[in-house]
Amino acid sequence: MLYFISDASKPVEYISCGNLASKDGFVHPKRNIDSFVLIIVIKGTLHITQNMTNYDVRENEFILLFPDTLHYGYRQTEGELSYYWVHFYVKDPDYSIYNRGSLLRNRPIFKESTDITSTPPGKIFYFPNTGSYLWRNVHGFSSCSFLILPKGKIICPHGGATML
User: Going by DSSP bridges, is the β-strand pair 45-50/147-149 parallel, antiparallel, or unpaired?
Assistant: First the structure.
């Protein structure tokens, strides 16, 4: 697993968002873009490769795709697939992406505990590249208007969803 770390005082810049819905046989196009992409799977399984690692992102899971990194579908979906996506830029020019080992070695704030799933103190935005979430009300999320907050939470302004 990889971890995205950024200065939380520097906001992200929204680009676009939407909902992909496919009946069967979807393959994510091959891309290398200059923005982050957060994909939140609502139904089915997205088969996607990033950094030469294959991911099967299932219902109630997310993946964070990194800028300037090739990503593509490595096989067709079977059955329905639905996911929300949001493209954004990170305004912190010093953001970092770490694997678990380098995170523990290079970020002293995480050395206090080996539990790197908890949010560190201070103004650090910390987000794993994959994970799961819990929907409280998926219908309120249909506008795809949401905030990514420190502590790894995703919330819909309409009170729709929270990732725990």
Answer: unpaired
Reading the block at residue 73, the tokens are: 């579908």
Q: Strand 61-65 vs strand 36-43: parallel, antiparallel, or unpaired? A: antiparallel
Q: What would the pLDDT profile of 84-111 be if each residue is shown by its tens digit?
A: 999 999 999 989 888 888 877 776 555 5
Q: What angle do CA 125, 14, 8 make, to 5 degrees?
A: 20
Q: The tokens of 124 are what?
A: 């650090």
Residue 156 to residue 164: CA distance in whole angstroms: 13
The answer to whether 109 and 122 have CB atoms below 8 angstroms apart is yes
pTM (predicted TM-score): 0.76
Q: Which residue has the tokens 């929300």?
A: 84
Query: What's the pLDDT tens digit per position in 151-161?
Result: 344 444 433 33
Question: Cα 15 vs. chain centroid, distance in angstroms?
Answer: 15
Helix/strand/coil for 45:
strand
Report d(CA 97, CA 6) in Å as an integer: 9
Per residue in 126-136, pLDDT tens?
Answer: 778 888 875 54
Determine the Cα–Cα distance for residues 41 and 133; give it in Å rounded to an integer: 10
